[in-house]
Specification:
- The complex is a heterotrimer of chains A (about 325), B (about 450) and C (about 300).
- With about 325 residues, chain A is mainly alpha-helical.
- Chain A has 15 helices and no strands.
- In chain A, about 50% of the residues are buried.
- Chain B has 19 helices and 14 strands.
- In chain B, strands 1, 2, 3, 6, 11, 12 and 13 form a seven-stranded mixed β-sheet that branches. Chain B has a three-stranded mixed β-sheet with strand order 8-9-14.
- Chain C starts with 8 loop residues before the first helix and ends with a helix.
- By secondary structure, chain C is mostly helical.
- Chain C has two domains: about 40 residues; about 240 residues, MetI-like (MetI-like fold), CATH 1.10.3720.
- Chain C contains 14 helices and two strands.
- Chain C is globular.
- The chains are: A mainly alpha (about 325), B alpha/beta (about 450), C mainly alpha (about 300).
- At the A-C interface, helix 1, helix 4, helix 5, helix 6 and helix 11 of A face helix 1, helix 3, helix 4, helix 5 and helix 7 of C.
- Chain C: One of its GO terms (biological process) is transmembrane transport.
């Protein structure tokens, strides 16, 4: 891999020249052996450190799993990090089907629908816009792009009320659209797509297609998009997760319990349980519901690691 | 392969969009109801309420009415519901036709013209069914902004078994209460006598009121005038009393309505729960109850046994919102949903509400009701009915939410942080509320 | 190479250029429509709202900049700003330190244990912030959390994590738990893209692992770290979700105006002062802008931006 040296290049790398002179072979072997021995000791230390860190990050998730298997009484009486006897996970799941007519599963379904629809929509929009910014030099491009980047710094609360008013004009408040439409806005995705497109799609390829007589749209769909596949999948994942995790927007826009996504729904149950009105305390359903709701995301992380990690690097290593 | 991926995604997107469009139908709030509509041709009235077991009451109403049907959803409890209501008032749409509001926030919404004056919709017809105090709470001048539903007359619930173990008699005055607290601590009990929550809000207000506090003077007939008197001597004395107890560790200062607090209520950490009439229902629903617990109810302790003062904590009403499409139908719902004996039997037995509807309030059924939770004690006859009878209504401010938040901050400073004394705290509260009122354009009288 | 020379080259270039400009705009139009509808327009509306004052008693009237003057002299707003600034100063280095150390260690190890640890450290990012806060609120609870038993093992009393004195550390912990994994992945990826022959050369020169880490790796990923810090700064100044979720169990330690964003939310949704809420939100946006652009300017040598 070449180490670029131009100042204009975004990769800020320093040039490291090799050490002056070459020590003779045996000295080098000795150095390497010493290094490996020292490494051995350090390796154990590093692994221990990693384990400690991993433990710190995993313990609350483990807690959630254990809590999901307990009944409400068990939650309050048994030790936090180990199972109660008997295991109530299936009873809890059955409870999730019964309570309020099984509305939990409606919530889960809503989360899926809102996330996928807005995720796909935001991705399509971002791919188009990223390509536009990357490969076309039109006037005002820099200014518009700068505005988009700046918009990341706008606090949410400034937008929710006017967004609410806008959507209520069209009678969309209290429907899924009130969550999906504003979630189509993902300036960071546009930024990622632009960077990736710029880096991966050579201008010459597009020029060649143009000279061959292909229209702009055909060039885009048949030549450019296939090249962008990894980034597209990453942006899709990030958009889906972004909408799934969004709390404040559906909290403000949706009233009807049937329309809530699972984060807001669980929060409602939490509020009701905290308030303690008779018969509404469903701590066991909250913990098991929370656990089930994080499973899709955790699983997708496990299975699609490559894309997650690939995508997050797009923004930093340009 | 890639085309297939995109085709597949496209299909998912379209299907999902179709599903979303179908399931959560377009339109404003009253689109889908938690309950079933029995007569689809009738006028539908949307209702927001959080009463437990309310669906049964709604079903009852829908069965008995042909021209009006209730479409009910639970939009959250207390503040959660109020913030949604607030947003929909601001944006001009999304509010329900009928909304459950605690009486303390009625003026906050009437001042924003969000509630319909029911005197034009036959409120006078049902006035006789409610106590004077209850009616005063929903009226302002000649206007009636809501129909009362339930109240919160206060009493004292206590753990007989704990008090017996330590040889303490149930206190009848606040002086006895303080002594009992000291005695419990001296005996080395693991818990405390009671809890004084910094976020008591209406609870704290009620305790002040028992000492004569009348914090606000407000009438929506003269909406820009307000009287504020929160640092009266009565309030200061009460706060000082509790500060002494908390500073000596005789009484806890846990936040109310948290999981911790709920458990401490029932597992014996607090021996006494100074509660409203909906308290027993609340206790019954909580987890973690001591099996050996014996609960009893008694009247609230008094400052002066010769001049007992009863107070109220909470209580809710049904109001008609100004966004209601058919105001007459909405008014019918507000008046009648908790206007029958059958509905109230559900409310009392399933939801443990304390009715303000006189026909059942005065009935023998209610009076003689034996509560299994209290070992068969007739709690209404002995405690809550007398407490409700003395109630003459209460005036709240049109910025009550703000006032409560400020009160909480001051009480925290006194009982939790120990950084101020009661007198200074209430003086600070007075000046901050006066400043707020002036900023909001009120004239302080 | 095809030759199309029927028209003069300059004119062809001109028409092609103009057409391409239009096409470029076309490609970004869907995004611009959404951007305008859900950001620009609401922002303008909110800005308009912030110039009015709506009092409970006397209705709405135009006050212009007086609202902003009020915001910047409002002790609650300024107090909130001070708090989030303090959080930024503590939380960002904490997250960065954890992320950096983890990433550096992972960079040197290739074992499956390291790979598994990487996944586990990243896992909290998959948990919605609300659920994460919910989990920690249980764990912090004096009754239901394990703190009592764990501290009891050492014969100590568990501290009250939700008291005003401890709430700062408790929140720092939640955010560090939630986000360090994310930053770690970003830094790790940047580390992975460094040419390993540089390390070889350094090792030959006798540099120790630690020296390699601090003198070579860290400077080379400086631009990634700056981006991480910038995003963390923007996020921290807008701190909202975790303290809001924790408020339901610790409302004594966390008043409604604890952070500027919470203050704006309370003003709008609890006290119905939507106009002043917009003012506060805008004032916060101004501070965030200045803060992040200022930081980017100060680090212009390291951040690698054009």
């Amino acid at each position: 891999m070449a180490v670029p040296t131009t100042a204009r290049d975004d990769r800020t790398r320093t040039i490291v020249t090799a050490g002056a002179g070459r020590p003779d072979r045996s000295a080098r072997r000795e150095a390497r052996r010493n290094a490996r021995v020292a490494q051995g000791g350090r390796r154990i230390g590093s692994h221990v450190l990693l384990l400690v860190l991993a433990l710190y990050f995993v313990i609350p998730i483990w807690w959630l799993f254990v809590a999901a298997t307990k009944s409400t009484g068990g939650l309050f009486s048994s030790p936090a990090f180990w199972f109660d006897d008997p295991m109530q996970l299936f009873a809890n799941i059955a409870g999730l089907f019964e309570h309020q007519g099984g509305i939990y599963w409606t919530w889960l379904g809503n989360s899926f629908v809102y996330s996928f629809v807005s995720g796909v929509g935001a991705t399509i929009v971002a791919v188009l816009a990223g390509y536009g910014f990357a490969k076309y030099r039109f006037r005002g491009r820099g200014f518009v792009f700068g505005m988009i980047l700046g918009s990341v710094m706008v606090p949410l609360t400034a937008l929710v009320i006017p967004q609410f008013m806008l959507l209520s004009q069209y009678g969309l408040v209290n429907t899924g659209w009130a969550v999906i439409l504003p979630s189509l806005l993902n300036p960071f995705a546009v930024y990622l797509m632009r960077v990736y497109t710029q880096d991966t799609v050579p201008d010459e390829l597009i020029e060649a297609a143009r000279i061959d007589g292909a229209g702009e749209w055909r060039t885009f769909t048949t030549i450019v998009v296939p090249l962008l596949r990894p980034a597209i999948v990453t942006v899709l994942l990030l958009s889906i997760v972004g909408t799934w995790n969004n709390f404040f927007l559906p909290l403000a826009m949706l009233t009807n319990p049937e329309t809530l996504p699972v984060t807001v729904g669980l929060n409602r149950w939490l509020a009701l349980s905290n308030a303690g009105a008779g018969g509404e305390q469903v701590w066991n359903l909250i913990t098991s519901g929370a656990f089930i709701s994080v499973l899709p995301l955790l699983l997708s992380f496990l299975l699609l690691q490559r894309y997650w990690q690939g995508g997050l690097t797009l923004g930093s290593v340009k | 392969m890639k085309n297939k991926v995109f085709a597949g995604l496209g299909i998912v997107a379209v299907a999902a969009a179709a599903l979303t469009g179908c399931s959560s139908a377009s339109g404003s709030a009253a689109a889908s109801c938690t309950n079933e509509i029995l007569k689809p041709d009738a006028t539908q009235v949307s209702v927001w309420a959080w009463y437990p077991s309310f669906e049964q009451v709604v079903d009852l109403f829908n069965q008995n009415h042909d021209d009006v049907q209730i479409c009910w959803t639970n939009a959250g409890q207390g503040n959660d519901e109020y913030t949604k209501f607030s947003t929909s008032i601001e944006s001009g749409s999304g509010a329900p036709d009928v909304i459950m509001l605690e009486s303390e926030v009625l003026s906050s919404f009437s001042i924003r013209n969000a509630l319909v004056d029911l005197s034009a919709y036959g409120a006078a017809d049902v006035k006789g069914n409610y106590t004077d105090g209850a009616w005063k709470d929903v009226s302002s001048g000649d206007a009636v902004y809501a129909i009362p539903v339930d109240g919160g007359p206060m009493g004292m619930l206590y753990r007989q078994d704990i008090l017996d173990t330590y040889g303490i008699a149930a206190p009848t005055t606040w002086a006895e209460f303080a002594d009992a607290a000291q005695k419990l601590k001296d005996a080395g009990a693991p818990g405390v006598l009671a809890n004084f929550p910094p976020n008591g809000r209406a609870f704290t207000q009620a305790l002040f009121a028992q000492a004569g506090s009348k914090p606000f003077t407000y009438d929506s007939a003269a909406p820009t005038d307000i009287g504020i008197d929160v640092n009266d001597q009565g309030s200061k004395d009460v706060l000082e009393y509790w500060q002494k107890l908390t500073s000596k560790g005789l009484v806890a200062t846990d936040e109310a309505f948290t999981a911790d607090y709920n458990t401490k209520l029932v597992d014996g950490t607090y021996a006494i729960y100074v509660a409203a009439a909906w308290g027993p229902g609340y206790l019954q629903g909580l987890e973690g109850t001591d099996d050996s617990a014996t609960w009893r109810a008694a009247p609230i302790p008094q400052w002066d046994p010769a001049k007992p003062v009863q107070v109220n904590w909470g209580g809710s009403t049904f109001a008609v919102t100004s966004q209601a499409k058919d105001k007459a139908a909405a008014a019918t719902v507000a008046k009648e949903v908790f206007g029958t004996e059958e509905a109230w039997k559900i409310g009392i037995e399933k939801a443990a509400l304390f009715p303000l509807w006189k026909p059942i309030l005065d009935s023998d059924y209610f009076r003689e009701l034996e509560s299994p939770f209290f070992g068969g004690q007739q709690i209404n006859k002995e405690v809550f009915l007398p407490a409700a009878a003395g109630y003459s209504g209460f005036t709240f401010s049109p910025f009550q939410n703000y006032a409560y938040d400020q009160l909480q901050q001051q009480v925290t400073a006194v009982t939790v942080d120990g950084s101020k004394d009661a007198s200074a705290a209430l003086d600070d509260l007075q000046s901050s509320l006066e400043q707020y009122a002036t900023e909001q354009g009120f004239t302080i009288k | 190479m095809a030759t199309h020379t029927l028209t003069t080259p300059s004119r062809r270039r001109a028409t092609g250029h103009a057409r391409r400009q239009r096409v470029g705009w076309l490609f970004i139009t869907p995004f611009l429509v959404i951007f305008a509808a859900f950001l620009i327009f609401p922002l303008i509306y909110a800005f308009g709202m912030s110039l009015f004052s709506s009092t409970l008693a006397t209705g709405t009237k135009f006050v212009g900049a007086a609202n902003y003057l009020k915001a910047f002299t409002d002790p609650l707003f300024l107090g909130g700003l001070g708090r989030v600034a303090l959080y930024a100063v503590v939380m960002i280095p904490a997250q960065l330190l954890v992320a950096l150390v983890a990433a550096l260690v992972l960079d040197t190890l290739g074992t499956w244990l390291a790979k598994a640890s990487r996944l586990l450290i990243f896992a909290p990012y998959a948990i919605p912030v609300v659920i994460g806060a919910l989990m920690w609120s249980f764990l912090y609870s004096p009754r239901f959390g394990p703190a009592g038993t764990i501290f009891g093992l050492f014969g100590l009393d568990a501290p009250d994590f939700l008291a005003s004195s401890a709430i700062f550390g408790s929140l720092v912990n939640i955010v560090t738990w939630q986000w360090s994994g994310y930053y770690m992945i970003v830094i790790y990826a940047a580390l992975r893209s460094i040419d390993p022959s540089i390390y070889e050369a350094a090792r030959v020169d006798g540099a120790s692992g630690l020296q390699i880490a601090t003198r070579i790796k860290v400077p080379m990923i400086a631009s990634s770290m700056v981006m991480v810090i910038t995003f963390a700064l923007i996020g921290t100044l807008q701190f909202f979700t975790e303290p809001t979720v924790l408020r339901s169990i610790a409302s004594g330690a966390l008043p409604a105006e604890y952070t500027p964003n919470m203050y704006a939310y309370a003003l709008a949704f609890s006290y119905s002062q939507f106009n002043y809420a917009s003012t506060i939100a805008f004032s916060l946006a101004i501070v965030v802008f200045i803060g992040s652009f200022g930081f980017l300017f100060l680090t212009r040598k390291q951040n690698g931006l054009k």
